[in-house]
Amino acid sequence: KQEVTQIPAALSVPEGENLVLNCSFTDSAIYNLQWFRQDPGKGLTSLLLIQSSQREQTSGRLNASLDKSSGRSTLYIAASQPGDSATYLCAVRSRDDKIIFGKGTRLHILP
Amino acid sequence: GAGVSQSPSNKVTEKGKDVELRCDPISGHTALYWYRQSLGQGLEFLIYFQGNSAPDKSGLPSDRFSAERTGGSVSTLTIQRTQQEDSAVYLCASSLAHGYEQYFGPGTRLTVT
To answer: Is B55 in Cβ contact with A98 (below 8 Å)?
Structure first.
């Protein structure tokens, strides 16, 4: 059974710093992995989708990497801003075709 | 219609009553997903539709939960004989096809009293 873990559960970082969020999964046979952000009381906003054949995806200040063999993905945020404060979730599409989410990392950027 | 819409945004119901939650996906998206997010828990995958068919219903937590999608567009999630543990935010998402990038609606907050 696929399990997705995100560590740390919460993170506070001064504005302007670069940071890395981690996502690990137990079954490396995935189709893809997607990173989302969720603002309080809101739905999820898609950030990046990485197919299993890809190693990384970039969008603006965000870069997501995927190492399928080790069951890990990272989301790198450059030059963090207060508006980046949110909960960041990763989700894998597992080989049994289910979408499994991690519990998220609550990120707080300190002005 | 720009994004995924869900209705109602909030629903308070008494224990034992049935509720219906509605999701309007992005036009042209063939895949539609339902998730549940409980307080302090992660997102729980419930069911997805590719077109009108629901390939996998095993994520539904009990037989009180059912979902349908007619005409390849709007979907309804029905919870019969609601229980307090059903209280959660129910999120719907759609994508161009299964496995493509998912776009989420704002959710329906269900409170069972």
So the answer is: no
> Contact A49/B101, CB-based, under 8 Å?
yes
Distance of alpha carbon B25 from alpha carbon B98, whole angstroms: 13
Q: Cα–Cα–Cα angle for B56, B58, B60, nearest 5°?
A: 110
How many residue contacts between A and B have a Cβ separation below 8 Å? 51
Tens of pLDDT along chain A (111 residues) come to: 899 999 999 999 999 999 999 999 999 999 999 999 999 878 899 999 999 999 999 999 999 999 999 999 999 999 999 999 999 999 999 877 788 999 999 999 999
A34/B42 Cβ within 8 A = no
Report the C-alpha gap between B43 and B62 in whole angstroms: 17
Chain A residues inside the 8 Å CB shell of B48:
99
